[in-house]
Amino acid sequence: MKKIILLFAASALMVATSTHAQTYQVNSDNTIVKWHGEKVTGEHNGKIQLKEGSFTVKDNKITAGNFVIDMSTITNEDIEDKEYREKLIGHFKSDDFFGVAKYPTAKLKITGSTAFINDVATVSGNLTIKESTHPVEFEVSRDESTYSAELTIDRSKYDVRYGSKSFFDGLGDKMIYDDFDLNISVAVD
Q1: Domain range holding 170?
Q2: For 61-104, where are the E strands, in sequence order?
Q3: Does the pLDDT at position 10 exceed 50?
Q4: Which of 67, 97, 132, 183 could be bridged to 158 by S-S, CB 3.0 to 4.6 A?
Q5: How many structural domains are present in the chain?
C-alpha cells in the first residue's frame, strides 16, 4: 500500500511540475498594426498588415515567435487628399524610406520574455527592416485571445535615411524624427 501511495504522490508531483508549450497562430485578418511618425512640422499615421505570425507560450512566458510584415500594404489615414496621400505612400515605399521593391517584408523574431505578471510581460527579440537586424524590447499585454504591444523604432538603425538628422545636417523644418511608433494588437486563433 505504501508503494502505491508513493507512486501516486510521485505521479502527482510530475504532473504538477510538468510544463506545456502552447503555440499560437496569428489571425492576420483580425490583427491590427498601426504606425505613427512625426516631423518638425507635423505628423502622419496609418496601418500596415501582418502577413503571418506565430508564437509559443511556455511556463507563462513567450519563449519564441516569428512575425512577417507585408511592407507593400502600408497606408496613410490622416491625409484626406487622395493625390497627396498616394504620393506619401509611394514615397514610403521608395528607396528613400523602406525600399519595398527590394525589401518586401520586415520581420520580428521573438527570443524570449519575462513571465506574465498581471497579464503583462517584457518581450525581447530581433527586428529586421531592409536586411538590418537589431535587438528590440517591449511590453506585451494579453487579454483572452489578443496580445497587444507598443514599440518605438529608431529608423536610422535600419538605414531609413530620408529627412533624418542622423544622416543629414541643416534639414531645418524638413527634418523627420528618427523614432516612429508601432501599436500592435495581435489576434490569435
Answers
A1: 20-187
A2: 61-70
A3: no
A4: 132
A5: 1
